[in-house]
Amino acid sequence: MRIKKTLAVAAMATLATATLAACGSDDGDDGSSSDGGPKTADIRVWLNGTDTPQDARDWLKKTFEEQNPGSTLTIEQQEWDGLVEKLTTALSSESETPDVVEIGNTQAPTFTSAGAFADLTDQLDGLGGDDLLPGFVEGATVDGKTYAVPYYAGSKYIFYRKDLFKKAGLEVPTTLDEFVDAAVALKQANPKPANFSGFWFPGQDWRNGATFIWDAGGDLATDDGGEWSGSLASAESVAGLETAQRLFTEASGAPKDGNEADPWTPWCAGEVGMMSTPGWVTGLINDPKTGCPDTLGKQMGVFALPGSDGEPAPVLLGGSDIAIAAKSANRGLAQKAVALMLSDDYQTIMAEAGLTPAKNSLAPLLGDDEFAQATIAAASNAKLTPAAPGWANVEGSRVLEDLFSAIAQGGDVDELAAKADEQMNEQING
Amino acid sequence: MSDRAPRRRRTPLPYALLLPAVAALALALGYPLVRQVVLSFQDFGLAQQFGQPPTWIGVDNYRDLITDPYLWRVTLRSLAFCLVNAAVTMAIGVGLALLMRHMAKGVRVLVQTGLLLAWAMPVVASLTVWQWLFDTQYGVINYLLTELGFDFVGHPWLLRPLSFFFVATVIVVWMSVPFVAFTVYAALTQVSEDMVEAAEIDGAGALQRLRHVVLPAIRPVLLVVGLLQVIWDLRVFTQIFILQQAGGSTRDTNLLGTYIYRLGIGGGEFGMAAAVAIFMLALTVILTAPYVRAMLKQERESL
Amino acid sequence: MARAPRRSLRITANVLGVIAFLIAIFPVYWMVNSSFLARNEIRNPVPTWVPFGGDLDNYRTVFATDQFVNALKMSLMVTVLTIAVALAFAFVAAVAVSRFRFRGRMSFIITLLVIQMIPVEGLFISQYKMLETMDLLNTVIGLSLVYVSLVLPFTIWTLRGFVAGVPYELEEAAMMDGCSRTQAFFRITFPLLAPGLVATGVFGFIQAWNEFTLALVVMTREDQRTLPLWLSTFTDVNRGTDWGGIMAGSTLIAIPVVVFFLIVQGRMVGGLTSGAVKG
Prior knowledge:
Low-confidence stretches of chain C: 270-279
Order of helices and strands of chain C: HHHHHHHHHHHHH
Structural class of chain C: mainly alpha
Shape of chain C: globular
Strand content of chain C: under 5%
Oligomer: heterotrimer
Largest sheet of chain A: 6 strands, mixed
CATH class of chain C: Mainly Alpha
Distance between the termini of chain C: 24 Å
């Protein structure tokens, strides 16, 4: 009997400990709810991945703490993987919310329209005004109010094999038509290996595919007085999709249902004549552990994809925004931190690391080699995904991956585009 | 048989024994589960998550859900996938557990170690490796089959839905068999050798011994493990989600797990996600009803 | 007479066992193989079957910072706490439902079943809110609490099966020999439950060890990362995923699970050697 009792008591004691700990200290509000927040505080900044160089982080912390005596700035390292889930929870918590967050530019509209970020409209002029990358500001603006500002961009350009161009007697194309013809010609001139690509274009790669839609005057979706609808089946969009189909079927040897990950692998295997990838891929091709610096890496040239009019073609611009959490108790100090991150000094460090700066005027900092020129040219005609409230759902259900993959397999473009519009319309308005 | 226990006397002891588990479950799941039900009747999205008051919309979430014809297509597909995978997993897992009793000790340790390693491998790594194995361009399987004389150069394993689900089944079964084999083998260690031998002396063949002695003895564990397979395979998510990124058509390969993720959580529509969770619960209850009845019947008889 | 089929059964069992081993192990082998290779050898038109010429660079990357050791400590704390609490709570609950008849017993059993069936994937939003009000975000106790609730229903159910599998007559016999009921339980039944505790313990260990989503939202501080969160630092959309690092990290993550199993696996066969169960 005694043992039984002991057992029960022990069980309850264990539980009681857990419960007690569970109900532990509750800090509650510290009473400083005024808009600007307390005069001194620890500002928590969430930066994702390894894009921001260490120099920039050090500079930010040091400068912020010098300019705001008594306050500190802590950079908390986060990952891109699972960021949306993490922001969804952390930004809703008074006690755990970071003050400043970095967020992917295509993820931003989901959060800006939900009220997760503080209004930055008043600050905009001080942060750079019209000099800020325009597509980014637009994408973070809801009903005339701006909730996030650009942090940096990274654009895509075309990598090409100089040796194969020479062998086939090709010049760097100056219009989109020339580009497509060159891609087809390269494929024909290189029957081996069988999966050789004049232009490497995996079936799921709608992010590159969108370029052809935009260049032909079409769009992914259009906004008609607040009501969004898919416009893939418009005559212009279909023309662009047909260009894409020609590249898929006549120029690309990439898997028809594949994705665009790890492009350096086919490049180094000698399976690629041209490909459209982010600038940082250069570094990986030139890294002996990842790529092939001594062989095909030496044959690498780059140019910005030309549009039909000979100007740089519209490309989907990747990059990051920076925003202040709506629940941050230290809004005033957070604004100072954001101002520092958009300052010329800080952005210079970013540019030197190869990231396209948040302000147009700083673009020359990237340098003047062919890579820098291609970056600047590509960024000059950058486009973003539609700023529709339900765009995240559209991307989530992978309507566009399915569409482009079906087009790559030789499907009827008109029919597929109409079907994709229909699916998009169900979700795009949230 | 059922009435020999001394435990008919009223005593608070069983309640005390249940208390820690009940309290832990109530503490950790009580609020989330209640909230889940509440959310399913609300229009609750990201805006509400960040402070806007939610609106009550009655059964709208449920109506939107069940009037979507695509949902029912996905549901049927999921049921088929679930039944095939659960059956294959159970057959292989239980078969291996039974065979383990007859293996040489060295082989048994080898099998157990192999299964454990497969089970312990982090999901990120195992899914990545499986993708590499079935990769269209650089896949090890295509390479091997080609070396063996078949033309599998650039064979797209994920392109056609049936082939896609074949690959998914291989991965899901590979990931679930260790759990089944281990748990069932543990249960088998409870079956007394003497009983099996007694049956043998009575002239029972191997299959008869299995049917009349071994399987009844491990029935409780078999039922739990089988039920879990059905539950897990019905809501399989990660494997399908990752494979869809690697290839195939998402719309033709969605299962309930991936579809509802995209319908709810993926787009930040938590009210809808909650309704979907309850729909899934209902579906699971219906699907497993015969199982559960068998378990409960046995439960009543066991005391 | 029965010897001949026995031998062929043994041979079949051994052959099938070796095949099962090879299928189970191949992806694991591929992970370990890749962990010694450079990124451009991991994915290549011609597969590299054996890591000759490979090196420890990926492991050097892993140990370049103290993050791995930190995450290891975190994961160990969370996992050990989770399985200790879950096994203790589940064990007493399993005894209650399989050795006692009382009011509410069936409701408890049905509730467990239903909880097991609820899709928990979407619960993280609410669980986060709950931990926030309890002030348990970014704590080992908070994460362990949600993990315990995750593995508890299964653990109770399975252990219940094991307790029920030990005939009560054995305990009665011991009681006739002068043991008290409790003594009889711990002398006779408890040793027979070891395989069940091992099986459910391994289950709980692996669940807690590899869980990602809840850890992701609950543990947002760098020094609070568990191993799966640390592993995700190798996937970087803007730099290309470091597959070598992922594979080296995954190999290291799998090792403690194997060690845990080796420690407890002796128990798995120990149960019956005593020969206590008589038909």
